[in-house]
Write a structure and sequence with these properties.
Length: 29
């Protein structure tokens, strides 16, 4: 259960970082 929770948190962080990169690329164009 604990591992599953950490995994969900990790996915959330990765999604946030990807969104930030996507915005940066969009601004570059």
């Amino acid at each position: 259960m604990k591992e599953k929770k950490n995994s969900a948190k990790g996915i959330s962080v990765i999604s946030f970082v990807l969104l930030l990169i996507y915005i940066s690329v969009f601004m570059a164009f």
